[in-house]
Write a structure and sequence with these properties.
11 helices, globular, alpha/beta, FAD/NAD(P)-binding domain, 4-stranded parallel β-sheet, 2 domains, 21 strands, 379 residues
Length: 379
């Protein structure tokens, strides 16, 4: 009787796991002892970090998408119908087209999504770059912006935690290149009592913001936006006026997670080391879908995927799951249009941003081009 591994989600984590597992267990696949399925709600795989560059006209949409079927190993079956229910008691994934897939092991990689509707007035009065249409709309606003007050307001949780800093530094540089930086008052807000969730990164920002003329307001949790008055008000009672409101909307996980009773707000309680759903023996969780207090970033999903693949292969072959995730994360941080830094950390070692350089910036741009090797399990 063959074993079946079902991966729900065709993003970076789900695609990496499918491809690495297919390579590692090629013998079992060829003999028919293993079946690997990927369930995705869309035929295209999108490189989400590229939206930051699309915002400035540095990337085009076509450069950021590939056909998911072409990225997947030929021996992996792809189902292009969204999952509407994951029944953990019956070990079943129910698809919107009525198909029910039984599994021995399921990997949930359903990601996260911006939900501006959680903040009254945000959809009408704010802009963000975490989705294609919204990114292009904000790009148009920036291209016609002649000066005034820009406020960046951030909701929690959100993916790509360093993106608010990146867009701040890049906008500062971009306005200087256009010769209008002196006409722009830029205020960066953050929901906690420092400029970033990671303390060393917050210190880095606090040290560099004054050099760039960037204003800041901490302990600012968005409560509501008034599109008519052009104000954003925090739960703490602070109201800021804006001419252009740039936001990182709060995020939620996929609706199927809530509908299946697997977690609140679409995030699944996950063991930080095994990456299994708490209380489960055959449900793995990867990337943004976990409720772990670590960065919701592509590199997180990448490093988690390596551990999950090793444990699934070991479990299917030997009944053992000896591998542990150590919390490893790596993130580039653009500090302008021509320089960048990076951070690398894990559960036991905090990040330490290095001095920004043009070389690191070019490393980031190079990775943007070769990213497609990552979901294919090559890089």
């Amino acid at each position: 009787m063959s074993k079946r591994v079902v991966i729900v989600g065709g993003g970076v984590g789900g695609t990496i796991i499918a491809n690495l597992l297919a390579k590692k267990m090629r013998h079992e696949l060829k003999k028919g002892e293993l079946v690997i399925d990927v369930v995705s709600d869309k035929p295209e795989h999108f490189y989400q970090p590229g939206l930051l560059y699309m915002l400035f006209g540095l990337k085009h949409h076509d450069e950021l998408v590939r056909d998911e079927r072409n990225l997947l190993d030929p021996m992996v079956e792809l189902h292009l119908h969204p999952a509407v229910k994951i029944d953990k008691d019956k070990n079943e994934v129910h698809l919107k087209n009525g198909v029910v897939i039984k599994y021995d092991i399921v990997v949930i990689a359903t990601g996260s999504r911006p939900t501006p509707e959680m903040i009254p007035g945000l959809r009408e009065g704010g802009h963000w770059f975490y989705e294609v249409d919204a990114c292009l709309k904000l790009r148009h606003e920036l291209m016609t912006f002649k000066g005034g007050k820009i406020v960046l307001a951030i909701g929690l949780p959100h993916k790509c935690p360093v993106a608010p800093l990146e867009v701040t530094y890049m906008l500062d540089d971009w306005f200087r290149q256009r010769g209008i930086r002196d006409k722009v008052e830029y205020t960066y807000t953050y929901p906690i009592g420092r400029l970033h969730g990671l303390e060393p990164v917050a210190h880095f920002a606090a040290k560099t913001f004054p050099k760039h003329g960037i204003l800041s307001e901490t302990l600012f949790n968005m409560k509501e936006v008034d599109p008519n008055k052009k104000t954003v008000t925090s739960l703490e009672g602070v109201t800021l006026k804006y001419d252009l409101l740039l936001t990182i909307p709060p995020h939620k996980g996929a609706q199927v997670i809530e509908d299946s009773g697997l977690g609140q707000n679409g995030f699944i309680p996950t063991d930080k080391f095994t990456l299994k759903m708490e209380g489960s023996t055959n449900i793995y969780v990867v990337g943004d879908t976990t409720n772990l207090p670590i960065s919701k970033a592509g590199s997180t999903a990448h490093f988690e995927s390596d551990i999950i693949v090793e444990n699934i292969a070991s479990e299917l072959r030997d009944g053992l799951t000896p591998f542990r995730y150590d919390g490893k994360v790596f993130c580039f941080i653009e500090t302008g249009m021509t320089k960048a830094t990076y951070i690398m950390f894990d559960y036991n070692n905090p990040p330490n941003p290095v001095a920004p350089s043009a070389l690191i910036h070019w490393f980031k741009l190079t990775y943007n081009k070769v990213y497609w090797l990552t979901p294919m399990g090559i890089l």
